Amino acid sequence: MLGFGTPSQSLGDMDAEAASRLIAAAADATLVLDGDGVIRDMAFGNADLAAALGGRKAWVGRALAESVAEDSRAKVTDMLSSAASHEPPRWRHLNLRGTDGASLPLLCAANHVSGSDRSIVFARDLRLLASLQQRLVEAQQAMEREYGRLRQAETRYRLLFQMSGEPVLVLDAASLRVLEANLAADRLFGAQPGFLDAFALEDRPRVEALLAAVRAAGTAEERRVTLVGTGREVLLSASLLRHERSSLFLVRLAFLTTEGPATAAPVSSARLAEFVESTPDAFVLISADGRIITANPAFLELAQLPNEAQVRGEELSRFLGRQSIELDVLLAQVRGRGPVRMFRTLLRGDQGSEADVEVSAVSVLDGGQTCFGFTIRDIGTRAPPPAEAAAALPAAGQLTDLVGRVPLKELVREATDVIEKLAIEAALELTGNNRASAAEMLGLSRQSLYVKLRRYGIGEADADEEG
C-alpha cells in the first residue's frame, strides 16, 4: 500500500471528529472492530445501505464473523489476521446477513489502527453489481434456451427436407448452381452436370422463363416439364429466398403420376409420416375449400379433441384465426405469393381454450389436387407482440352499453366498419401495399377498394385512383 508522503504536513492536526468524517466518507459502510472482532462502532456513507442494514444499533456489539454467511466466515478471520499482522489490506467479497435474513454482498478491506487493538473495515456495496451479474446470467441462459430451440427447429426442418419424397433443391439465383438438395433430388439430379441438363431440351426455355419470372416477381405459375432419360413429366415450381446479400431459388418437383419417382424409398415415406405424428409442432393438411383432411396428435391436443375422426372434414377456420378473415387472407397469400412463415394468430380449442400460435403454410399436391399444409407452433410462453389491431376492435361490453341508446343498425354498422377497415389494412400489409392484389384477395373490384380507402382514410390516392 502506498500512503501519503508527508501526512503530518498535508493533513495537519486532524482531530478525532474530522478523522471520523473522513473515514466514513471513504466507503459505503465503515466498521470499527476490537481485538476480538466485535463491532464497536459503525458509520455509513450510503443511505440506501444503511436502510438495508437497519442502522448502527442493529450491529454494534455483534461479532463480524457471526454476522456473515457461512461461506464468508473464513474470509473474515483471514482478513482480520492480515490486518493485525500489518499486512497491506486486500479486498475480499463478504456476504453480510441483513436483519431480515437477506444476504447483502459487500467488498471489504481491513486496516489495523496503530497503537491499539482496533481494526477499521471499509465496505463497498455490491448489490448493484450483483444484480447486473444476475441479469447477465439470466440473459445468457435465455439466449442458450433460444439457441437450443432454433437448433431443434433447424434439425426438424432439415429432417423434413431430407425425408421428403419429392425432389427439392436450393439454387443460386445468379448461376443456377445447386447449393442444397434432398435425397430424392440427389437421386434424380446426381448424374446431371447442371440443373437445366436434367430437363428435356425443348423444355429448358420454359424452365428458364419460370425462374426469370420468380426472380422478378417472387413467384410464378407451375410449369409442366419433361425429365431427360426417363421421359417422365413433372410439375416444376419455384420460390425466391433472400439470404444475406444473395438470392436463392427453392425449387420443387411434383410427379404427375401416382407411382412417384422410381428411386423413392418407401421406408423414407414411413419415417416422414412417423416424424410428423410424433413432432411436438402441430401439422394439419386441408383441402382447397379449407376443410381438414388429416392432422397429427399435436394439433388434436391444441384443438382439445380426442381423435382425428372428430376433426376430419371440419373447417380449419373453426379453430384457427382471431377472425374468420385471417384464414382467408393466409390462404390467399399462399396462393398468390408462395409459402407463408411465422404468421401470428390464435388457435381456439373445442373446450374453449385459446393459445397464441405461429403458423407456417405451404401449397402442396395430394393426388393431383391442390391442398394446403400448415405447421402450427404454440408460442404462449413468449412475450406477446403489440396488439394495436386487436385493441381497435370494439369490446362486447362497450357495444352492449349502447343498447337502448343507439339503434341496432348503427351498432352493427359501426362494428362492420371496424372489421372491414382491419381486413383492408391486413390485406395491404400482406400484399406489400399492392392495391390490385389486395382487392383481389378481398374479393373486391379496384374501384370498390379505392372508395373504401378514401372512406377510412387509409393511405394516399395513387394515379389510377385519381383517374
How would you characterize this protein structure?
The protein is α+β, with helices and mostly antiparallel strands. The protein folds into 4 domains: 15-125, Beta-Lactamase, CATH 3.30.450; 164-255, Beta-Lactamase (2-Layer Sandwich); 269-381, 2-Layer Sandwich (Beta-Lactamase); 390-466, Arc Repressor Mutant, subunit A. The chain contains 16 helices and 15 strands. The strands form 3 sheets. Strands 2-1-5-4-3 form a 5-stranded antiparallel beta sheet. Strands 7-6-10-9-8 form a 5-stranded antiparallel beta sheet. The protein has a 5-stranded antiparallel beta sheet with strand order 12-11-15-14-13. β6 and β7 form a beta hairpin. α10 (324-337) runs parallel beside α13 and α14 (435-442) packs across α15. The longest helix has 37 residues, at 127-163. It is elongated, with a radius of gyration of 36 Å. The model is unreliable at 258-266 and 383-392 (pLDDT under 50).
